[in-house]
């Protein structure tokens, strides 16, 4: 009888009593309990694959991926984008050809399907809720083409906005200290129940790596699978976090929300939200994080630093559809996870010191080439 992932994980416990009777010989012959991490790894690894991409017979990309059913694999856009010929290697080292059925540069997610009768013996599911900071996770993939590799860490942060391809940020990203290296991209980060917390997409140093959250993946992946693409909500504004200096300059009671610096011509907010007045020659700002544009919408020139150079006037967005907006990361996350293109959303702004609700119909985020 085939041992399933669900059956395996049902026996995993966190105490010694749950592990009693589950022993394996060491090299010295001494019996020891199997590690909980080993049990999770054994359950998850059959669903993890190596993804290789070639063009004109030459390998141009390599990463990881994982199955969500017997023939459907989730990986990164940047893994499959360099070439047109895709193949995957299973945990049993067998190979199969595959076809990209959908890819999205803005979320860095892609879906591929196995050709012919090839199947993956196990599949993974996403968590319903992202675990808290500090919870243990495992990353499984093929760093440096080292197949079926495991690294262990914790969730180091949540709700990050991380730069990705196409000048847009990926919102709601998960930060981890688990080792992530070239080739890890597209692999799963799982909790100790074996459920997918995030999809690896970037490593930045030995102890800082990032994954696309399960929440975002669960919105994007079904659309990629069904339609080949995903339409992201687009407000069409350049914004600055309302720092204490900006709050003081604009006579705001609290440093909260984001200041609309500029609206994109013919975009959803054009003529609906009010822009601020920005000095022609702003200086440097001590903290670049205080000048975070909506992903893909870069402000003209460097952000200001001197209080004389700070923007004045303009709408301050403090809430969208009942979700408070504390900063630019919150704006991006709310648009990504709680709205859809063509949806009309109520946006609460501070305008001339008065709280006002304005309805804005969202558009579709333009592609990088547009």
Give me the secondary-structure topology:
Layout: H1 5-10, H2 16-19, E1 23-25, E2 31-33, H3 36-44, E3 48-55, E4 58-67, E5 72-75, H4 77-80, E6 85-89, E7 95-104, E8 109-114, E9 136-141, E10 149-163, E11 169-176, E12 188-190, E13 196-203, E14 209-213, H5 214-227, E15 233-234, E16 237-241, H6 244-249, E17 258-263, E18 316-320, E19 323-324, H7 328-338, E20 344-351, E21 354-361, E22 363-364
Antiparallel strand pairs: 1-2, 3-4, 3-6, 4-5, 5-8, 6-7, 7-8, 9-10, 9-12, 10-11, 11-14, 12-13, 13-14, 15-22, 16-17, 17-18, 18-19, 18-20, 20-21
Written description of the protein model:
The structure is a single chain. This protein has 370 residues and is an alpha+beta fold. Among the domains are: 136-227, Beta Barrel (Thrombin, subunit H), CATH 2.40.10.10; 233-364, Pdz3 Domain (Roll). The chain is 15% helix and 36% strand. It has helices at 5-10, 16-19, 36-44, 77-80, 214-227, 244-249, 328-338, and strands spanning 23-25, 31-33, 48-55, 58-67, 72-75, 85-89, 95-104, 109-114, 136-141, 149-163, 169-176, 188-190, 196-203, 209-213, 233-234, 237-241, 258-263, 316-320, 323-324, 344-351, 354-361, 363-364. A 6-stranded antiparallel β-barrel has the order 3-4-5-8-7-6. β18 (316-320) and β19 (323-324) form a beta hairpin. The longest helix is centred in the middle third of the chain and has 14 residues, at 214-227. The radius of gyration is 23 Å and the shape is elongated. Mean pLDDT is 85; it is low at 1-30 and 282-304.
Tell me the radius of gyration: 23 Å
Strand content: 35-45%
Helix-strand sequence: HHEEHEEEHEEEEEEEEEHEEHEEEHEEE
Distance between the termini: 53 Å
């Amino acid at each position: 009888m085939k041992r399933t992932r669900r059956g395996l994980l049902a026996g995993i416990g966190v105490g010694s009593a749950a592990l009693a009777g589950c022993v394996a010989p060491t090299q010295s012959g001494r019996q020891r309990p199997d590690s909980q991490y080993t049990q999770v790894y054994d359950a998850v690894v059959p669903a993890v694959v190596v993804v290789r991409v070639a063009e004109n017979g030459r390998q141009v990309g390599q990463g990881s991926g994982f199955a969500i059913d017997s023939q459907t694999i989730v990986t990164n856009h940047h893994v499959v984008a360099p070439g047109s010929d895709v193949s995957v290697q299973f945990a049993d080292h067998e190979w199969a050809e595959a076809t990209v059925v959908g890819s999205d540069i803005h979320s860095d997610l892609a879906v591929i399907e196995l050709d012919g009768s090839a199947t993956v013996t196990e599949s993974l599911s996403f968590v319903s809720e992202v675990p808290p900071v500090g919870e243990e996770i495992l990353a499984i993939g093929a760093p440096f083409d080292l197949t079926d590799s495991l690294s262990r860490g914790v969730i180091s942060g949540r709700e990050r906005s991380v730069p990705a391809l196409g000048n847009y940020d990926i919102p709601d990203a998960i930060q981890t200290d688990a080792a992530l290296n070239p080739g890890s991209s597209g692999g799963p980060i799982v909790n100790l129940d074996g459920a997918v917390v995030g999809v690896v997409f970037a490593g930045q140093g030995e102890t800082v790596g990032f994954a696309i959250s399960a929440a975002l993946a669960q919105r994007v992946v079904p659309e990629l699978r069904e339609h080949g693409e995903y339409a992201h909500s687009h407000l069409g504004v350049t914004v600055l976090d309302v720092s204490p200096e900006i709050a003081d300059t604009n006579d705001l009671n609290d440093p909260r929300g984001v200041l609309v610096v500029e609206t994109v011509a013919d975009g959803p907010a054009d003529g609906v939200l009010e822009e601020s007045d920005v000095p022609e020659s702003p200086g440097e700002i001590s903290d670049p994080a205080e000048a975070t544009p909506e992903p893909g919408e870069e402000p003209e020139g460097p952000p200001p630093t001197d209080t004389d150079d700070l923007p004045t006037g303009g709408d301050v967005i403090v809430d969208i559809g009942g979700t408070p907006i504390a900063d630019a990361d919150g704006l991006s996350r709310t648009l990504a996870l709680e709205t859809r293109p063509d949806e009309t959303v109520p946006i609460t702004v501070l305008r001339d010191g008065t709280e006002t609700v304005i309805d804005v119909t969202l558009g579709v985020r333009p592609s990088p080439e547009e």
